[in-house]
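Raw record, unedited: TetR/AcrR family transcriptional regulator
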Amino acid sequence: MTVPTGRRERKKAATRQKIADTALRLFLARGYDAVGIRDVAAEADVAVTTLFSHFASKEALVFEQDENFEQRLTQAVTGREPHEPLVPALRREIHAMVRHCTAAGAAPIRRMIEESRALREYEDSMRLRHAEALATAIADDPGLSPTTTTCRAIARFVIDAYALAREAADPDAAVDEIFQMIEAAWEVACPFPAPAGDGSGPR
């Protein structure tokens, strides 16, 4: 996420974080369904309209890092070093994300999401948005030439790798195992041409 530099931007970011932190504390203490938007606004000492200027819905309060997650994924594509392969760059980012979400203290939040139909449905729609954003970033990369279907499929695989690995007994090993399959699929869909003159053809 871009770090706000101006005073106004820093104030807005601080207010947003305060609202999100307050909401999460109340949800975990009382239960997600037992806490309303007005409860969060009152506890955070902001108007309901202010809350909605930062978060579009109650569900969005739980996924405060939604925007950051999407930006990190697309940045893994657009910000990688020249000639760095795509899949290793994505694997590195998913490793970091999985370690963050499986760190100490994350389990209660995960349980809350799994126990709420509204939160599960929101997370499903969020994952589809992230996959589409990632697919667009891959398609727009001038060094790559995959089809639209390949971009969307690989992006879905990457998002699913995050979801599956965080539930595994060994998340790091799960990321590596899943990305071996993603890399194999990518190489089939987008083989690199062999150097000119070696007669080996595409690999």
